[in-house]
Every structure is written in C-alpha cells, then in structure tokens.
Input
Amino acid sequence: MKKILARLIVLLGCTILLPARAEPPIATRTEIDAGRAQVLLGQAVEHYRAVGDTALAEFGRQGRFIDKELYVYVLASDGTMLTSGGSSASLIGRNVSAMRDVAGKPFFAEMLEIAKTRGSGHVEYRWLNWVDNTVQRKQAYFERVNERVLAVGYYLPRTSPAQAKAFLEQAATAMRAAPDEAIKEFNKLGGRFVQDDLYVFVIDMKSGHFVAHGVQPRLIGTDGLELKDATGQPIIRNILKMAQTRKQGELDYLWPNPVTKKSEAKRTLFQVVGSHVVAVGYYHQ
Output
C-alpha cells in the first residue's frame, strides 16, 4: 500500500510540474497579409511554370490572381513591365528599371538585381494603394522564373514599435540640439519628420499648448489639456501628468490614422526635453 501511495505522489508531482501548453500567438494583420502575398506569388509562379507567357494575360485581369488589394505583376529581366493586375498596369510596356518610388528609392532596380543574383527575395518601397487611394509602405515578394520576375506586394500601413522608438530618438536629439529649428521641421508637412503614419508632436509643459504637430497643423498653438480621444480620455493631460515624475513614458488611446483615415488604437511614446514633451506614436491592433 505504501508503495502504491508513493507512486501516486510521484505521478501527481510530475503532472503538477508539467508546463501548461502555450497558446499560439494571434497573427497580426501584417503577418496575415504577408502570408496572403506569399501564397498568391506561389500560385502565380506555379501557373507561369506550367503555361509560360500565356499566364501574363491572366495576371492582368480580374480573376483568381487578384485578391482584394493584392495582385501579380511581372517584369522582364531588362526591367520592362510585362503585366500587372493593379495600379502599376499603367506602366505596362515601359522599362521601369530606373524608376524610383516617392521617397527616391530605385526599388525596381534593387528587385531585378536580387532576382538575378539570388533568384528570389523581397523589397520595401512606397506605392499607391488603389483601395485607399493613398501612398503607403509596401513590401513585395518576388521570384525569378527564366527571364521573368514575378512579384506580389502587400501594404504596410502601420509602423512597428521599434521604428516609432527610433523616430522619437531622432526627434528628441534634434530638439536638444536646436529647439527652434527642430520645431519648424516637425511642423513641415511632407518633411523628414512625417513618414506615413509616423509624425512628431510637441507640448509646452507649462502651458499645455501644442507647439508642433506633424499632420494636424490646426492644433499648433491650441490648448491640449482638454483634448480627448473617442473614449473620453484626456490625452495630453495624462501625458503631462506622467511627465511630471518621469523623463519618458507611453500612453494608449484612440486616434485617427493619417494613412488609413480610420480611428485606431495608438500607443504614444514620449520624452521630456527641457520644458517640452516630445512625442511619437504608432498604431497597433
């Protein structure tokens, strides 16, 4: 009997010590869209291998090779756009190897070079999203098949936390070096401190007034203490309250995304620089 009880105790102990099975992480929209793009590219490559250039016409019209905002486009090895199921259809027949995106990046040339040397890869650039009619960050997966490069891209409307943190560091450094010049730069529409859904805003800690805002210039000079989000949270008042006791922090609230034009969950990171709070936020789901 004692031996049986001892065995039961050992078994129960082992059961208790077994770690609980971790729940799989929930995929983000970006991860889902990246997966969709890779699947569509895989289907396009398989079809092209089977029928050759006959597939070009299919890629360029509504059908199974267009998935909402995702579509296939194909370049010849010399950089000529052969077909496109999306906004780049206007480029068909043109050599785009020297073309740059709105930020000046020669992404087609980069794509062609990687395809030539590695066979496949991905490249990030900025392109018109024909669904939202806005220029957004886009990442394209591509693969070379003989003398053709097939590509499918997906849009990246949301900045990562790491990018927001780095952006804030740049803004805070500029503010410490030359506050007046930095504020002018923060307020410049289309300037280097406005990138997609990333922008800077600055609050005077004494008055609570905005002295800079990268996408809503109407807020400059206004009292931010009564500014509230859709849930009634006093955003600036809460940030200033935290700034009284710490040099940096973060706050979650709802705010319009300048890229998607929708009210979304936003996390703003801030640093205290002299008598000002310098802040940068990113949108998340």
User: Anything to note?
Assistant: The helical segments are 2-17, 29-51, 55-59, 107-118, 161-177, 179-186, 235-243.
